[in-house]
Specification:
homodimer; seven-stranded mixed sheet; 18 helices; 23% strand
Chain lengths: 682, 682
């Protein structure tokens, strides 16, 4: 399998029971996990049900009748007792328990001739399970850098009164074959009391360190050595944990790993508290230059991490003192700020970071609330705007090991792009702007409760079907919701390929607003904010700029190595945001290139994946550094063809329809279908 | 010369002018440096001149007449103008400027038939000069572990915007051929501003570190690597200093070294401020176990060192920030206390230290007032009572490199003994007690101003001739003075070989006291204390125990390897105390073995010598650790023959006169001479 396309070689993973939901009168069927929400199933199936409250049982519009099968859900005042007995339910409040047949009453779909369009499942593209993720990378073996070893030390006698340290090292050699161990000198202060209080039965924590290797800027040397960093009383060899972190500009993710059992004990996330000082890396750098600013930024993110650590050890039922190591991946600015390194010159031309490779530091010295022996390893960066998060992601996805030409993307405020294979890797970062994270959008918000996440439009009435995160009254629009909405608008002819609303459509929802025309997604009484929720032409323009920047990034990077989109054999989509994307719709708007859907692979948080891999397999550290050295960074802002590609991509999906033949064809068909239906509806 | 006896291969050192002093009526001659004090010259020559005030011109008894030659000295009321014109002077106030002939008037020597005994010069044995010391060790080359390197770094450009660190390392590689450098991560915090404020012209401090090697308790690995530890603005490569320290139980010595010029810029010493918490290592350990005791002890000695550092940088005209490194040697307890390591179990059987080898620590973390980048290397110990000071001394003396069987001794409260050569080394420590440092002696004191340092006795009148340090009124007796006194007493028959005073002598100075008999060295009106200064039989007993412990140490150690005193080809005497010893008299009392005097070599402060050597020659670190591993420690207290040897040595010089044939013969002759003279005097 080596060198081939990524094929996951795991045994089949046990899936939750799946059930079949059939929607009538459309006779559309979809398979979903048992327990799935019926409104979500309808969205997945491409069946339109009226729903303007986001799924909070507030509007009562999504009434359906269960004809067959088992469902469950709370009673609601919107359904009378009589209706309930007949099988009426609110779709948004109902979960399916078995195969079911659902009738959508005429008042719920409003339009008898509902779109029977076929579409790929939202989850098109491979979404890889947790267990499968580990097999993305070839040839890795379970060999954590950290090791805990219970050892019984010989107490001193008159005949053998060597030093405490000597006795301990002799015991480690005798019982465990460990030689040439060096020692963290701090341990010596506690050594005599620990040994004696533990009756000479102790657990040693050992780390495989290396001659510091240094990523191009230094010379790589492979030799490793073992260092004794901690000693605990009694046998605690089985309590051996590490923490991995993805330090995002917006969100910090953490996992607590059981190093012995190769398990994730907890996964948590929280906003990076630095947000209060600016939304993007540039505004953070600006803030860092104010008096005390750098310190505040560092303390903020460390505070966030400390909160996550507390949460994880509680969730995992782990004593914090048993955590042996930390690994963090982040973009270059986040890595600088995490450690309190001055990011000033990252922002000033010619954009130089302090260092790409940062030797592991003692975590307590940076303010992390962990044991004194814990070191923090940060993933090496490549350049000012290509950080350790992408190195970690490339590592975690294994693309640097395989022959197929792969595009790796992490879509975000700083879109990061890697193209290459086992022979070479080029990388670039493009400033997509915050639209994907809900920034710069009139009613944009982050992907949290109340964010409009999925969207359908009635092709005749142009009435919306909203689904929010948490199924509550809509509050705003998150990035993935925005993509879904724009794609839906485009397919329904609500907007034209240049992103402007079609003013001639017979719907009061399209109206002039302060930012050009706008579409009312929900009226004031249906929203959480008590104000109309709208999407404006300026919002659409912002999204178009963001997707154009990403697309121009891939194309320019490919051109710089003499290749084209068509030559891509695989597209790996990383990032929390990436995992919520509807692949087909992302292609529809031209954010992702039009390629066969089976070439796409979603790996979730790639940088956490790489950090996790390194925690379990020390040997992979070399790979991380090799990747960082393999990567050639292309500065897009310096590349003259980037701007041409960008302007060409400022269209839905693209000015050159040949780049999106399928989408163009679909839009043509769709628009004629809409035309026909509109005529019929008159 | 390799493998041979230590022969100093340096060009002759320029000596100060030497002049000849001839004493009449004895017609005794001695060569001394021009400027020598006349009383001291008399002592050296073995000529007795009355002097009971220690040399302060107070008693006026040491009148002499300059017959020929040039002298100088202040006028004193004890010599009239007329007498002065005739050539009369107080010997204690007179310095010789040319060859002189001195008449000792009858009233000054009191006994016409002054002893014309021949004796070796006090300075018998080789006393090695500073420059010569460096050539004791073979094959060392100037290669300090620390190196400063001025380097011009390329500023970043749009085409080359590698990280600041990368640029610096590239410059070090290009300009200095340095590769594979690792970096102290702390430097990164200051890196961007230093580079830019210095206009990219900086001085790097680089250290050759090693895979930690570990003295038997660990495996030794030879590979070294270069680590960047400091960066300064501009060209400061020529300001490159280190500090070496000898942490003694009583005294701390320091030298400030110019690493580039291989020079000592300052040498200072001060009492170890820990003295306030106890005189010896045992009482320090006891104190360390009180609440807060360990911290106080550590802070005390660090305070002493900080004081010495301040003094040295002022003396040397050096900015403290230019000091790059510190090396310290001390006994095991002192090393523990210097770093704040708990010495508790050094004192409790079976006497285990925390560690013999301690990895270099960051000096500021232990409280030393030096730059953040400065590391402190402490010499490895061998066992609880054989410390890094002795390892350093063996290193500095080069005895581990040569074939001749050598006895190395550092006489002190903890007498340290090494026997061996380039093939093997055995070592032992014996608790001699504090007598050599004036402890446990009724009027004992440290070797400071007012301490009785040299001593002669009139063989007929048994009147004393005292010489004190600083030539002031006597205050007490220091260790070397005690040895001189006991030897003189023994030779004059004032005490018998079992250390008891001869009560039958016709002198009022021998009298009963609270501690057995005592001898009055000076009456109350002649002393600085205003009380009689006496030496008691208990004092003598204490000294005998101390010297017996040392001697039994050598013998037991030799026996443990199947050898005897006679097989010793060389005796190296180290330590500040050692350098004040009168070799012949130390043999007379049986402290040093009776061997030809040319086999003895005095090297002064051996541990400072080794620390200094390592500062100039990094390669020698391996030798230090090799020595520590070569050394087999013999626990004397566990050795049954030690007690036998000890008891046999509780005699002056020894119960077995065959071990000191020369001394025994001399005492026999002397006693008959004294007998004859006494008869004549009647």
């Amino acid at each position: 399998m080596d060198g081939g396309k990524i094929i996951i070689e795991k045994e089949p993973v046990l899936l939750p029971n799946r059930v079949l939901v059939r929607f009538q009168p459309h006779n559309r069927e979809i398979e979903v996990p048992a327990g799935e929400n019926l409104l979500k199933a309808a969205v997945e199936a491409g069946v339109y049900i009226q729903a303007s409250c986001g799924g909070e049982a507030f509007c009562g519009k999504c009434r359906v009748k269960i004809e067959k099968g088992e469902t469950e859900g709370p009673r609601t005042p919107k359904v009378s007792e009589e209706e309930y007995r007949q099988g009426f339910r609110l779709a948004c409040q109902t979960r399916v328990r078995s195969d079911v047949e659902v009738l959508i009453p005429v008042e719920s779909h409003l339009d008898r001739r509902v779109i029977a369009r076929t579409r790929e499942r939202v989850s098109a593209g491979r979404r890889v399970s947790h267990q499968e993720l580990e097999s993305l990378v070839l040839g890795w073996c379970y060999s954590p850098a950290l090791r805990k070893q219970f050892v019984e030390v010989e107490p001193p006698t008159a005949k053998d009164n060597r030093s405490d340290l000597s006795r301990l090292l002799v015991a480690l050699k005798k019982n465990c074959g460990l030689e040439g161990i060096s020692v963290d000198s701090r341990l010596l202060w506690r050594l005599p009391s620990i040994l004696r209080e533990a009756d000479w039965k102790v657990t040693a924590t050992l780390v495989q360190t290396r001659m510091e290797s240094q990523l191009g800027e230094y010379q790589l040397r492979g030799s490793r050595r073992t260092k004794l960093i901690n000693l605990e009383k009694g046998d605690l060899a089985q309590e051996h944990y590490s923490i991995v972190l993805d330090i995002g500009t917006t969100t910090v993710w953490g996992q607590l790993l059981d190093l012995n059992r190769r398990k994730t004990l907890a996964e948590v996330s929280d906003y990076n508290a630095q947000i209060q000082y600016g939304d993007d890396v540039i505004s953070r750098i600006v803030y860092s230059q104010k008096p005390g600013g750098l310190k505040k930024l560092q303390e903020s993110v460390v505070g966030t991490v400390n909160g996550l650590i507390r949460e994880m050890v509680v969730k995992g039922g782990v004593d914090i003192s048993r955590v042996s190591h930390m690994t963090a991946a982040g973009n270059t600015v986040m890595t600088h700020l995490l450690l309190g390194l001055d990011p000033k010159y990252i922002r000033e031309s010619p954009y130089t970071p302090v260092a790409n490779y940062i030797p592991p530091i003692r975590a307590v010295e940076a303010g992390f609330e962990v044991g004194e022996h814990v070191h923090l390893y940060t993933f090496p960066s490549v350049a000012s705007y290509v950080g350790g998060d992408i190195v970690s992601g490339v590592l975690g996805s294994g693309i640097y090991q395989r022959k197929p030409l792969t595009l790796y993307i992490d879509i975000g405020t700083n879109g990061e792009i890697v193209i290459g294979n086992s022979e070479w890797l080029v990388t670039a970062a493009c400033s997509a702007g915050p639209a994907f994270e809900g920034g710069g959008i009139k009613h944009g918000m982050r992907a949290t409760t109340g964010a409009l996440e999925d969207f359908r439009i009635n092709p005749v009435s142009y009435e919306p079907m909203l689904l929010t995160i948490g199924m509550v009254k809509p509050k705003g629009i998150c990035g993935s919701g925005l993509i879904n909405m724009i794609a839906e608008f485009l397919e329904a002819g609500v907007i034209s390929p240049n992103g402007k609303f079609n003013a001639e459509l017979p719907t009061p929802r399209i109206r002039p607003g302060p930012d050009g025309r706008e579409y009312v997604l929900a009226y004031a009484e249906e929203t959480a904010t008590g104000a109309d929720l709208v999407i404006t032409e300026v919002d659409i323009d912002n999204l178009m700029r963001a997707k154009a920047a990403m697309y121009a990034g891939y194309v320019t990077l490919l051109q710089s190595v003499g290749l084209s989109i068509a030559s891509l054999e695989q597209v790996v989509i990383a990032g929390a945001f990436g995992s919520f994307i509807d692949l087909e719709r992302a292609i529809t708007i031209g954010l992702l290139p039009e390629l066969p859907l089976d070439r796409f692979l979603f790996i979730g948080n790639g940088s956490l994946l790489g950090a996790r891999l390194i925690s379990f397999c020390n040997e992979m550290l070399d790979d991380g550094e090799r990747i960082s050295r393999m990567m050639t960074n292309i500065e897009l802002s310096e590349n003259p063809s980037f701007m041409d590609n960008y302007i060409a991509a400022l269209f839905l999906p693209h000015t050159n329809s040949a780049e999106f033949p399928g989408v163009s064809q679909k839009l043509k068909v769709r628009s004629s279908e809409f035309g026909v239906r509109k005529l019929e509806a008159l």
